[in-house]
Amino acid sequence: MATLRGGRSLQRLSAIALSCPRARAAQRCPPIATHLHHRPRYLSTTRACRRAETIDAFPSLLANTPPELLSRAAPTATTPQTLTEKIVQRYSQGLSQGKFVKSGDYVTLSPHHCMTHDNSWPVATKFMAIGASKIHDPKQIVMTLDHDVQNKSEKNLKKYSQIEEFAKSQGVDFFPAGRGIGHQIMVEEGYAWPGTMAVASDSHSNMYGGVACLGTPVVRTDAASIWATGRTWWQIPPIARVNFTGILPQGVTGKDVIVALCGRFNNDEVLNHAIEFTGHSNTMRSLPVDDRLAIANMTTEWGALSGLFPIDDVLKGWLRYKATEASMYKAPSPTASLTSDRFNHQRLDELLSDPLTADKGASYAKELFLDLSTLSPYVSGPNSVKVATPLNELEDQAIPINKAYLVSCTNSRRSDLAAAAKVFKNAATTDATGKITPAKIKDGVQLYIAAASLPEQRAAEEQGDWQALLAGGAQPLPSGCGPCIGLGTGLLEPGEVGISASNRNFKGRMGSTEAKAYLASPEVVAASALAGKIAGPGWYERPEGWEGVRSGEGDGIAEEDRMISIEDALDKLVREAEAAVLEGEQTVAGSSESAPASPDKESEVETTTDILPGFPEKVTGEILWCDADNVNTDAIYPGKYTYDDAFSSDPAKMATVTMENYDRAFGQVARAGDILVSGFNFGCGSSREQAATAILAKDIPLVVAGSFGNIFGRNSINMRLWASKYPSSSDASASLSPTAGKVNKQSLDSPPPAPMVTPAKQSALTVRTGWTFTWDVRRSRVVVVEGEGGREWTQRVGELPPNVQEIIARGGLEGWVRKEIEGA
């Protein structure tokens, strides 16, 4: 079968320089780039763009909406919105007339598509338990099997069979085990469509942003709600703009871009934000779609809820190719609709006639920039995405490896496999007779490969790339998540070092907690497998006069290079004036207001919050202190238990492994009724709702932290686990435990500091403090008593919104949906 293809280098061909008004600026303007857009496909499924129907929002959202938001007066048509806000506007229901959604708004959301994977059966059991029998809109739902595809046990095969039969009975598009990773299927089959919103019960739904589809994760309970009603709730997060400048150099990939972003902006700058990537058209042309998918995919690890690229010429070319390919290869699937139902030129004509773009003057919570031309190959780790090191520095350390992985939805598409195969082909030798001897991986090293999907593997086979990797000693695995999620063959053993082209290297994620995991591009993974140590292929050459990576706040464009219209100039002046007025108001307010309340004194006027029927007014317990930041979901509930449905449905069993990857002693130290208090970014990582239910299984009703991973916060609400941030007006983060920050302070998302003298007595990871924490919901305050007869102090906290109370009071989102179905 003939196909059009080109390697990474063909995707970034530079042409003539862009003409600029000043000679000096002309030297800095990025050159125009052209590309070959490829990617054949064999299986497919999509449908015409479908807008959400207008249905009532959650009752509490409408009942408690301020009158000004329900006003029928229409806002002006020029209300500037970000691209994220525009897409959410399309898929929000129950909006008042003329309402333009904005960051911070709670909306009732009916996404264009919702994908579930191996967790489809647990979702189905929730769906049936709430009294639902028929999926609200079968065309909205996609089911895939991808996580535990190597597991051939009777129990797992039975679950897979149940999912397939359920999908068939409901008329839902279904993709069986071995067909591919769900996120890749969503993209290559056209479910993730530009300008739409798609969700999935998996944390890497962000990947859809690589094709300008707003992708964000939901959890199993949300998915059951969407199955039953077509909708769920969502709060529009703060939106950050990340501006790219320059041209990505030869030998540097999209993986290097996102690894550098995670490492250079590693202080939670984009935590729980929606990201929009922007840049000059020539800059964006140096980022082909596959690189965009890798970048968007790992915005999850960066802490963001989405990573959205624009609808531009690069994407348009890729879409046209896909539509042509779909029309040529209409291979029918027995379990899903045709790809050409989604990828077709008529639908593209409609999309491209009026593509969505962010409005000029749209408001962003923050703006960051990265100069791509200053990047070199990067490596993430060990065991952290927040530590990114230039490859050349690690090469100098000659770090030996035991295992290498070309797997996952991040970097195992055909272009990634081609890049890795090129490393092997270049290292092959030819004797005097012309016989070619394939390059082999280093003795003692194991290399595992698994394509992102079956069509991607077939394309790699047609190009000879798959065979080149096998000839070099690679061990093939079925298309699926496998080692990336810590399931199946090839996991890291204690003491081993691995390097992977996947997306997540949390401690214990890919095997033993005593192993080390690094992340890198496919080229670097392949070169490392050949060398037996972390190494690169040598394709990158540092530019003359290089002075380091340019990144920081703002858009990164030098003022002398900036060309703006009169409208843009006026908009800039208005924004600067507004900022000056706000600064003045804050200065005046600061000089006239009294000092903030101390932990011992409440200076604010007490207000009360209405408590819905069935919702408790207070929760109280002893503080159980876990002195760590970035306690991820793998630490709270290990991945090896996540897809064992029998285990995860038994609270007694779950309680025995709660916080196991954080502290194996946690189960013996924790008691029923404790209040778990920890550091910042608690619950980051995957979307597994068991991280919340495992804590509940230990009879812990409340978690208090400096901040939460958004998906964990969402799970907490859906599963009726209370969660509260430290009071922002005090140093409570250092006051909620007598040992806070004094000894043993650690981060589970970054390696420990350099070796230090071990103290005579190591502090326990989990500490019983003897202190009491009480959250008074009606008065919106917390009261801490520092042990029997100790100091008592009070702090104000935010009100608990009525819609959140409503979900918790009904026993979680399942209970809410059940009530809605009963009342329908």
Automatic annotation (TrEMBL):
Subcellular location: Mitochondrion
The entry's keywords: Amino-acid biosynthesis, Iron, Iron-sulfur, Lyase, Lysine biosynthesis, Metal-binding, Mitochondrion, Transit peptide
Name of a matching Pfam family: Aconitase_C
GO function terms (MF aspect): 4 iron, 4 sulfur cluster binding; homoaconitate hydratase activity; metal ion binding
Top-level class of the enzyme under EC nomenclature: lyase
Catalysed transformations (reactions): (2R,3S)-homoisocitrate = cis-homoaconitate + H2O
Organism: Friedmanniomyces endolithicus
Record GO cellular component, one term: mitochondrion
Major localization listed first in the record, in broad terms: mitochondrion
Protein name: Homoaconitase, mitochondrial
Metabolic or biological pathway: Amino-acid biosynthesis; L-lysine biosynthesis via AAA pathway; L-alpha-aminoadipate from 2-oxoglutarate: step 3/5
NCBIfam families assigned: h_aconitase
